[in-house]
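It is worth pausing here to work through a concrete case rather than discussing structure prediction in the abstract. The textbook approach is simple: state the sequence, then state the predicted structure, then interpret. We follow exactly that order.
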Amino acid sequence: MCRSNGTWLPKRGEHAGAFGQYYRAITFGVVPDYDPEGQAHSVVCPELPGCASASDAVEQAKQNIREVIARYVSPSEVALPRDGRLDEVTVR
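Step two, the predicted structure:
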């Protein structure tokens, strides 16, 4: 379950106003688990394949998954040909 809290926030380290420099805060569901054999806590985000975190402490694993999700959903640089065009779409 992912949901938006309706707040637009500037991306870390950037100024507002340029193309793609705002994002909407979104809440994702995560699943914590504990492996007694490995004595480690893990957290996965089922909505985002490959987003997982592990740590000795559950709170650290949750903090780590926040960083993993932020990197997963953040836009990346796109190399365009000289006559290329980049548009945006909004998903609700």
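Step three, interpretation. The two ends are 13 Å apart (CA to CA). The chain has one domain: 2-73.
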